[in-house]
Amino acid sequence: MVETIQNLALGFSVALSPPVLLYAFVGCVVGTLVGVLPGVGPLAGISLLLPATFGLNATNAIVMLAGIYYGAMYGGSTTSILMRIPGEAASVMTCIDGYAMARKGRAGAALAIAAVGSYVAGTVSVVALMFLAPPLAAFALRFGPPEYFALLLLGLLVLAYMSGGSMPKALSMAAFGLLLGMVGIDQMTGYFRYAYGVVELGDGIGVVPVAVGLFGIAEILTSAGQVTPPPVIKPKLRELLPSRQEWRDSAMPTARGTVLGFLIGIIPGSAHIISSFVSYAVERKLSKKPEEFGHGAVAGVAGPESANNSATSGAFVPMLALGVPSGPIPAVMLAAMMVHGVSPGPMLINEQPQLFWGFIASMYVGNIVLLILNLPMVGLFVNVLRVPYPLLYPVILAFSVLGVYAVNSSVVDVWIMLVMGGVGYLLRKLQFETAPVVLGVVLAPMLEMALRQSLAMSDGSYAIFLSRPIATTLLAVGALLMLLALRPLVTKTFDWRARLALAEKGDL
Amino acid sequence: MIAVRLLLLAVVAAGAAGVLPAHADEAYPSRPITLIAPFPPGGIADLTGRPLASALEKVLKNPVALVNRQGAAGAVGMNSVAVAKPDGYTLLVALSSISIIPEADKLFGRQPAYTVDQFAPIALLTADPTVLVVRSESPWKTAREFVEDAKKRPGQISFSSSGVYGTLHMAMELLSQAAGIKLRHVPYSGGGPAVTALLGGHVDALASGPAAVIPQIKAGKLRALAGWGSERIAALPDVPTFKELGHPDAEFYIWSGVFAPRATPAPVLAKLRDAVRAAAAHPDFKEAMARQETPIVFKQGEEFQKFFDADARRLAEGVRRVGKVETK
User: Fold this and answer.
1) Same structural domain for residues B106 and B156?
2) Interface confidence (ipTM) of the complex
3) Are residues B213 and B198 in the same domain?
4) Which residue range forms the structural domain that includes residue B138?
5) Whole-angstrom Cα distance, residue B313 to residue B308?
6) In whole angstroms, how far apart are CA B87 and each of A147, B21, B200, B265?
C-alpha cells in the first residue's frame, strides 16, 4: 500500500510535468474530437496520430494515445444524444435513450449525465487498474477461445432476453447483423465469402458504416419523410443541468456500468463496444420501469456511457501487466511503445516505473481535464439543436460521409453506410429495433472465430466446451436464461414486455 | 464543335494516362514520392517504412510520404502499386506476404489481385528469422525433444499463428515439412493475439518474430527452442538454428523490402536503388531499427533477387502443401 502511494507520487510527478500534461491535454482534445465526429472512432484517431508520436519520447506518446482512447468515449455521446448518430461504435446504445431525452428537451441533462458518468467510471477504473492489474491479467489469460465463445453466446442471449418489444423481432435483427458480419475473408480457411469480387469486401463489413447508416442516415430519412417537420427544440439555459431526480436515477447505473465495463474490458476483443450493449441490457432488466427504456430513460444513458469508459481502462490491464494486446487499440499502442524502444512485457512495471506510473497518474489527470472540457461544452453543444433541419441535416450527412470515408479511405464503406441508411429507414418504418444489427456485426467475426478456434484446439470435438470450468459455467448461465425466457409461456403471467406492448397499443 | 471537344478530351486523357511524354526531360524526383505500406499503422511495414521514408527524404532532398493503404491482408495496397503509373513516384514497402497472396489466390482459383512480376525489387531492408517458442513450464527443453514428441503424437501438439497462410503459419509449415511432423494449427487474427494464446496455455507452441517474444523470454514466461535463420539470432545467442539441428529446409524470415512498379524506367530505378542504399545507411534509420530490436539486413540487385526468388519458391511450396484448409 505504502509502496503504491510512493509509486503513485512518482507517477504524478511525471504526469504533472508540463510536457506530459500538455500531451495528455492534446490527447484528450483529439479524443473528444474523434469521438464527436461520426464514423471516426478511437482506432482511426490513434492510427492516424501514431506517426506524429514518433518524434516524442515514450511516456509522452503513450499518454497522448491513451488520452485519445478514453477521450473518444467522452466525445462519442455528444452526437448520439443530439442527433442520434453514434460518434463512435461504443455509443450506439446512447443513441436510443439519449436522443429520446433530447427530444423531450433534456439534451443538456443527458450530456451532463454522460460526462459525469464517464468521469466517475474513468477515475474509478484507473484505481482498479492500479491495484488489480497483475492478478486480473492472469485471469484474462485464462480466457481462451472456448471461454470467449461461451461469453459471447451468453452476451447474445442476455441481450435478446432483455431487449424491448418483440423478442422474435429482436432476434431476427441480431441474426441479420450476424449475417452481415459473415461477409469477408474466412479467417480460418482464407476463402472469400459474399464478396462478389469486391476486394474491399474481403475485410468484411465494418461496424462504423453500419452504425452510422442505421442510426444517423436512417434518422435523417425518417425525419425528412414526415409530413410536418419535427419541432426545433429550443433548450432553455436553466434546463441544461440534470434535475435531482435524474442525478438519483443515474447513480446506480453509473456504478454498475463502471464495474461491468472494467470486467468486460479486460477480456480480449472490442470490449468497449460490447460493454455498452451489456450495460444497457442489464439496466433495463434491473429497472423498476423497463418500459421507459427507448423513451428517454436516464439509466439508458448513464449505464452504457460509464461502461464504455471503464472498459478502456480494463483494456489496458493485459497491455500493461503482460505486454499483450486485448484489442486493436491496445495493439497499436504496444507498437508505439516498441517504436520508442520500450519492450512491453511482464517486466514493464519494474523496468519502466516512470512510464508505467506516469501513465496511470496521467489517466487521473486526463479524466479531470475531460470533465472540465466537456461540462461547459454541454451549453454550447445543445445549441446545435437550434439549427433548422434544412441546414442541420445536410451538414450531418456531409460529416457522416467524411467520417466513414476517413476510417479506411474506402468509398465502399460510404456505399455500405448509404445502403444501411435505406435499410435502417425501412426497418424503423416496420418497427424493428436496429441496435441488435450493430451488435451482430460486432460479434459475428469474434463469435465465429472463437467457435472455430475452439474446435481447432479440440480437433473437432464439442466436448471442449464442457471440459473447461469457465466456459461451462457461462454456458450454463445462458441455458438458465433461455429457460427463464420461456417461463411466461407456462405461467401465463404478463411480464413487462407484455405490459409494454399493451401500453403501446393504447398509445396508438 | 462536339468533335473538337472530344478531341480535346482525348488529348487531355492521353496526357493524364502518361501516353504523351509531357515532361520526359524533367529531373527525377521533382515532386513528392508516395511510399505505400499495405498494412495499418503500427505493423512491421509501417514501422520500417516510416523511418525509411524520412531518411529517404533527407537523401533525395525531396518529400517522401508513407501512406497506409490497408485491406484484404495487404492485397489492396499491393494491387494499388502494381497498377500505379510507373514513374518512380509510387513505391511499395512490402513483407514476405507479397509472394504468399498470389499463390493463395491461385489455390482458390481466384483472379489474383496482382502477380509478383508486376514489381521491380529495389532493396531488402530487414530479414528477421522467426523463432520457435513454448511456455517455460512446458516439457520440451530443446527443439529436438519438441520434434521427437511431435513425431510420436502426430496432430496433437498445437500452435497459434497470425492467420491462415500468414507468415507465422508458413514458418511452422516449413518446419513440419522439413522435420516430417504434423502439428495442429489454431489461427488467430494477428501476431499479438497469437502470443497471448500461447501465454494463456491455449496452444502449445508458436513461431514468432524475435522482437515480439524477447521480453516474455527475458521475464521467464516463454522458452525459445530454435530459430529459422541461417545464423543464430543476435539477441538469443544460446538458441540454435534448425539448420544446425539438421533441418536446413526450415529456413524462414519475416522480411521487409522496397518495390516499384515493374515498368519504372531504368534510370529512375537506378537512382532509387542508390537513394535507398544511402537511406538504409543513414544514422536516423539505423537508430530507429535498433530501438525496435530489428537488425537491418540490406540486400540489393542480384543478391536481393536471389533471396526473393528462393523465399518465394519456399513459400509457394508451403502454401501448396497446406492446400485448401478444410475445417470440420
Assistant:
1) no
2) 0.81
3) yes
4) 131-227
5) 9
6) 52, 11, 49, 7
B123 lies in the same domain as B159: no
Q: Are the C-beta atoms of residues B219 and A343 closer than 8 Å to each other?
A: no
> So what's the pLDDT on residue A238?
67
Q: Give me the pLDDT at residue A330, please.
A: 85
On chain A, the residues whose CB falls within 8 A of the CB of B218 are 345, 347
B26 falls within a domain: no
Q: Quick check: B327 and A197 CB within 8 A? A: no
Given an 8 Å threshold on Cβ–Cβ distance, is B71 in contact with A185? no
Measure the CA–CA gap between A69 and B320, rounded to whole angstroms: 42
- Residue/partner pairs of B287-293 with CB below 8 Å, 24 or more apart: B288/A339, B288/B50, B288/B51, B289/B48, B289/B51, B289/B126, B290/A341, B291/A338, B291/A339, B291/A340, B291/A341, B292/A338, B292/A339, B292/A341, B292/B47, B292/B211, B293/A343, B293/B210, B293/B211, B293/B214, B293/B235
Contact, A311 vs A291, CB < 8 A? no
B75 and B93 within one domain:
yes
Domain count, chain B: 2
- Chain A residue closest to B328 (CA)? A460
Q: From CA B135, how far away is CA B223, in angstroms rounded? A: 6
Q: Quick one: closest CA in A to B197, which residue?
A: A144
Window 79-138 of A: residues touching B by CB (8 A cutoff) are none
Mean pLDDT of chain B: 85
What CATH number corresponds to the domain at position B175? 3.40.190.10
Cα separations in angstroms, B276 against B41, B52, B86: 21, 8, 17
Domain match, B144 and B90 both:
no
Q: Where are the domains of chain A?
A: 2-507
Buried b (16+ CB within 10 A) or exposed e, A150-166: bbbbbbbbbbbbbbbee
Query: Which residues, numbered 313 to 352 in chain A, qualify as contacts with chain B under a Cβ-Cβ cut-off of 8 Å?
Result: 318, 322-325, 331-332, 334-336, 338-341, 343-348
B-chain residues near A185 (CB < 8 A): 72-73
In-domain check, residue B291? yes
Q: Which of A51, A54, A199 is closest, CB to CB, to B72?
A: A199
Structure-block grid coordinates of residue B33 = 514520392
Task: For B291, name the nearest residue in chain A, comparing CA atoms only.
Answer: A341
Q: Using H for helix, E for strand and C for coil, what is the string for A57-110?
A: CHHHHHHHHHHHHHHHHHHHHHHHHHHCCCCCHHHHHHHHHHHHHHHCCCHHHH
Contact B292 A338 (CB under 8 A): yes
> SS3 helix, strand, coil % of chain B, rounded to 5?
45, 20, 35
**Tell me: the pLDDT tens digits for A135-182?**
888 888 888 899 989 988 887 777 776 666 677 788 888 899 999 999
Residues B217, B75 within the same domain: no
Distance from CA of A351 to the nearest CA of B (A): 11
3-state SS, one letter per residue, for A365-387: HHHHHHHHHHHHHHHHHHHHHHC
pTM of the model: 0.83
Question: A235: burial class by Cβ within 10 Å (0-12, 13-18, 19+)?
Answer: buried
**pLDDT for residue B7:** 46
Which of B54, B136, B199 to mutate to test binding with chain A, by most A CBs within 10 Å of its CB? Answer: B199
Grid coordinates belonging to A240: 441544461
